[in-house]
TrEMBL record:
PANTHER family: POLY A POLYMERASE CID PAP -RELATED, POLY(A) RNA POLYMERASE, MITOCHONDRIAL. Residues 11-79 form the RL domain. Signal peptide: none annotated. Gene3D superfamilies: 1.10.1410.10, Beta Polymerase, domain 2. GO terms for molecular function: metal ion binding; poly(A) RNA polymerase activity. The gene is Mtpap. Keywords: Magnesium, Metal-binding, Transferase. Its cofactor is Mn(2+); Mg(2+). GO terms for cellular component: mitochondrion. This is PAPD1 protein.
Length: 525
């Protein structure tokens, strides 16, 4: 759509600023079940112009309302009362979450136009597979999958609102702090239903540096000093965590995980339905989000291929939401990017090429690492590569099915296979912290399971007779790859020949372990 194209070409920072501003003019209303949309909007208009709104289901009907002016919220808040304390006493924190009930409930027979509810989670894989079988090419199957899983405009607004509501608390202590989403909520690769990673930022960048030059004095705030930045982070998160736990409407299951490598507070935000992770600003994580944003905007094939590969990996148990020795979605995403850099001609530029295009305002040195790359998408030349997604999907499986993981590592800066600096099974260079391997957690059995599945998938795509399968109403193309490959699949065993029996044993053990642990989880639920 045109609207999509116009939003697509904005820089990452522009999109963020616009969305954060939108979120500050937004409220969330829990609505009565028999709701007349027109009546609601008419009433809200008495407080100011409603710029956009949508309804969604989450323990009842909810409305997200975006006003044109921030002052409309204060006007509405003046009209809203405090819940009457009968059996509960309330914490009198006035947020932007309201409950509306009808004073005179409408009698049953009134003809209501049903509300259009915006979905906030994706359909199950088996339903996706049914849709895929109706498509006419693997490319269109991949775009169907992308459309089912990607974040919607409404879901993104809800994510920014969740951050904005947390920001209301942090600003009580730190008036110029901001809370922003990072990672999958903003990098164009987020999937419906994923957690919201948010961070607390105190940087009031640029504004102060220029002001301080004037006048005869060096001036600074008196502030509490602590022995380390880590301790300051832990203390701030600890207090904000307590605050959300004690006063935050609908903030439940608050867990403070302050001794992690990156200290964070986890909580469920009931009003928006999100699982949230709050940490203190990590500039490198934000650069990674922006880098992926750029790659995702450059060519529509990039996102289609990433969503497809991640869905495929999830179905075959190659990735898992629990931490462990599995490949992570982030690692998989970078593997897809690397593959696209290796095509001839390349579909996306290397990180070094993006750094060449950077100008003064794009310069970022963080903790001694050069994290500079161009932010203006218009400066990047479009690719001359015209390969279809049908070709690229098969080529991806072939490429990694035959990749020399023993010798080579994956380096997005250079866009080349580089000798591994250390002997971990899978080595993917962190794009910015050049001495880190982002896939350090992956063990040999998991890597070999990935290789075996990639080979099997490449084989299925090469061998299949699409017309015959469509006549027989069998799943074909991508649909055939999203069905777990059977235990009694003799084809699989043939393609495992090249892999040592030791590995097969450990692979089978790891499969058993996975099964055992997932059964335990299922029982636990």
């Amino acid at each position: 759509t045109d609207a999509e194209v116009s939003t697509r070409k904005k820089t990452f920072a522009e999109v963020q600023t616009e969305r954060l501003d939108q979120a500050e003019r937004t409220v969330l209303i829990k609505c009565p079940s028999k709701l007349n949309e027109k009546k609601l909007l008419q009433y809200l208009a008495s407080h100011g112009n409603v710029k956009s709104h949508f309804f969604f289901e989450n323990r009842g009907i909810n409305a997200l309302i975006e006003f044109s002016e921030k002052s409309s919220i204060a006007s509405l808040q003046d009209a809203v009362g405090i819940p009457s304390a009968s059996e509960h006493h309330v914490v009198p924190f006035k947020s932007r979450l309201f409950t509306f009930t009808l004073k005179n409930p409408v009698s049953q027979h009134v003809e209501e136009t049903p509300l259009r509810l915006s979905p906030q989670c994706h359909i199950p894989v088996k339903d996706v597979i049914e849709k895929l079988c109706l498509a006419d090419s693997i490319s269109s199957q991949m775009y169907i999958l992308l459309n089912e899983y990607q974040l919607t405009e409404e879901n993104i607004k809800l994510r920014f609102l969740a951050c904005s509501l947390v920001q209301d608390f942090t600003r009580a202590y730190f008036p110029d702090s901001t809370v922003k989403p990072f990672g999958s909520s903003v990098n164009t690769f987020g999937k419906l239903g994923s957690d919201v990673d948010m961070f607390l930022d105190f940087r009031d960048t640029g504004r102060h540096a220029t002001k301080m030059k004037k006048g005869p004095f060096e001036m600074e705030y008196q502030m509490k000093r602590l022995p380390s930045e880590r301790l300051a982070t832990q203390r701030i998160l600890s207090v904000i965590g307590d605050c959300l736990d004690n006063f935050g409407p609908g903030c439940v299951n608050v867990q403070k995980i302050l001794n992690a490598r990156c200290p964070l507070v986890k909580f469920s935000h009931q009003a928006t339905g999100f699982q949230c992770d709050l940490s203190v600003s990590n500039s490198i994580a934000i650069r990674s989000s922006e880098l992926l944003y750029i790659y995702g905007c450059l060519d529509s094939r990039v996102r289609a291929l990433v969503f497809t590969v991640r869905c495929w990996a999830r179905v075959h148990g190659l990735t898992n939401s629990a931490p462990g020795t599995w490949i992570t979605n982030f690692s998989l995403t970078l593997m897809v990017m690397f593959f696209l850099q290796r095509r001839s001609p390349p579909i996306i530029p290397t990180l070094d090429q993006l750094k060449e295009l950077a100008d003064e305002k794009d310069k970022h040195i963080i903790g001694g690492y050069d994290c500079s790359f161009v932010s203006d998408l218009r400066k990047i030349k479009p690719t001359k590569n015209t390969e279809t997604l049908d070709v690229l999907l098969g080529a991806f499986f072939e490429y990694f099915g035959n990749f020399d993981f023993r010798k080579n590592s994956i380096n997005l800066r250079k866009g080349k296979e580089v000798n591994k600096p250390e002997s971990t099974p899978l080595y993917i260079w962190n794009p910015f912290e050049q001495d880190l391997n982002i896939s350090k957690n992956v063990n040999q059995p998991q890597l070999e399971k990935f290789i075996a599945m990639a080979r099997e998938s490449a084989w299925i795509l090469q061998k299949e007779d699409k017309t015959q399968q469509m006549i027989n109403k069998e799943p074909w193309g991508l649909a055939a790859l999203l069905i777990p490959f059977g235990k009694n699949n003799f084809k699989m065993k043939n393609r495992m020949k090249g892999i040592g029996s030791e590995t097969i044993r450990s692979l089978l053990d790891s499969l058993k372990l996975n099964n055992a642990s997932s059964q335990q989880k299922a029982v636990g639920k």
